[in-house]
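Dear colleagues,

For the upcoming journal club I promised to circulate an example of a predicted protein-ligand complex. I picked one with magnesium ion because it came up in last month's discussion. The inputs are reproduced below in full, followed by the predicted structure.
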Amino acid sequence: MNAAELLKFRSVSKRFRLQSGTVDALNNVDMTVSAGEFVALSGPSGSGKTTLLMLAALLDRPSAGNIVFDGRETSSLSEIERSALRARSIGMIFQNYYLLPRRTVLQNVLFRFRYLPNPPQEPRATALQALDMVGLRGFADRPAGLLSGGEMQRVAIARAIAVGPKLLAADEPTGNLDADAARAVMECLARLKALGTAILLVTHNDALLCYAQRCLRCHHGTLEDRG
Ligand SMILES: Nc1ncnc2c1ncn2[C@@H]1O[C@H](COP(=O)(O)OP(=O)(O)OP(=O)(O)O)[C@@H](O)[C@H]1O
Ligand SMILES: [Mg+2]
């Protein structure tokens, strides 16, 4: 694997088993994301985007094929090794934020360190730095549940990036936001990319594709590179 390659899918397939039969969500997908690259992934509903993102974030395992992350063949890792790699190197954000609404913004970000084998020496300062990145340092002591949708998503980004991940996987992070809030979120992602984090962004919104260096399109479980 080339040193600049952070994530590589080799003939990756994912088959889900249901009582009524099987669903082939991804078929022989090849994909490379370089270190620090911003890649957008679009495609119709049901085409396999979330499935691909969950595999990229090591939250699920492929049915066939190999996924190499940061030079490590992930299929040979134990569940504990995969969790440690994920906690250290991968941030994930979702359309629905998944914050703890009664906890403060700062507590939500600090929560990210719970899963780390080596938490930062100064967790509070590190979390505040992440909140600075998304322009929400002044919101640290507010309950997360009282923020606007756009602000919640930026807290979710701060939580994801507080560990300094090599990859941020984002599944329609602007899906619930209006145009201005979506732009604020995208600008956070662009700043993060400028600091060297690779971003894999699923979006239905073609207006946001301009933030990415490369656009991939999912179609019936296959992937097309649209340049
Ligand atoms: N856990 C699961 N069990 C069974 N089938 C699943 C599971 N997860 C996804 N699928 C199926 O796999 C296919 C791809 O789903 P996926 O969620 O990846 O699509 P998507 O491109 O993210 O769609 P959307 O844009 O609606 O979010 C769909 O047909 C879906 O029904
Ligand atoms: Mg999806």
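Two points we might discuss: The domain at 5-225 is CATH 3.40.50.300 (Rossmann fold). The first helix runs from residue 49 to 56.

See you all on Thursday,
B. R.
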